[in-house]
Amino acid sequence: xxxxxxxxxxxxxxxxxxxxxxxxxxxxxxxxxxxxxxxxxxxxxxxxxxxxxxxxxxxxxxxxxxxxxxxxxxxxxxxxxxxxxxxxxxxxxxxxxxxxxxxxxxxxxxxxxxxxxxxxxxxxxxxxxxxxxxxxxxxxxxxxxxxx
Length: 148
Prior knowledge:
Helix content is 41%, strand content 14%. The protein is α/β, with parallel strands linked by helices. It has a single domain, classed as 3-Layer(aba) Sandwich (Rossmann fold), CATH 3.40.50.2300.
């Protein structure tokens, strides 16, 4: 992933979002990040609706980090809508959630999640997982470009 490509973080918790940003910083992730605080905002962003209807207001992300437990439209629904869309489904969606429920894991992979990462409670463990995420998704794999 190029360093100018956007990471969309869909996370309602300010504390978890701050942890993601801190872990990105400590891991050397310098990509721009845009945060959506709930599922409805994420869908508006991705489908260029509501306050994101203006052209150029919502650049396509290279990857989406998606929490499951969101107010309003939950992460399962957001994932399903992304993967049902012919244009958006090519975007990797990494579920980043506190849920270790095997049913959630299975449902997410069935819906097309690219990865499922359980957020640990301790920051050092979270940092380790973010470093692995960076190494794999941002440095190892080839991702489709936002426009192609």
